[in-house]
Structure prediction request, 180 residues.
Amino acid sequence: MTSIALKNDPVLRKKAAPVAIEEFGSHNLVKTIAAMAEAMFQEPDGIGIAAPQIKIPKQVFLVAADVLNPVQLNERIQTSNKTGAGKSRHFTSDDYLVFINPKIEKYSQKKSKDIEGCLSVRGIYGEVTRSEKIVVQYYNVNGKRLSRGASGLFARIIQHEVDHLNGTLFIDKANNIQKI
Prediction:
């Protein structure tokens, strides 16, 4: 089982290195992504994870694909919480989206506050203000350059994970922090 770096781990405070051109499509990159997915899905509420969170300081993050389907996401989290199924859940590459060397190109001026938590900062939640819509450019595992828009929860997760790649934790930006 892949362990998740906790908030005091120095790897979480360093800017992650870009994935080099020769690393795209490599066994090592595929292995890193698989370890990230395992760590994310072992947590019932895992919806995003950045490589530094598994102590790999590279510019890679994943977002659970069911984030794009709120009903499906809610069902997964509720089922996992009841059964503890997150720890043994089987998943495939269809279950998550991969973002490598991401750059947020556009942020909407309209922002909203919402409660955030983090797999590396368990039991602590706080209100974070983020842009409601973004456009992100990134690469897939094979090195193809892509761009996509995101809104709502999806945009929030991307911004949260990009913060991880820059050595920032949500608690650095949060208000009304509460331990739950």
Notes: The chain has one domain: 10-179.
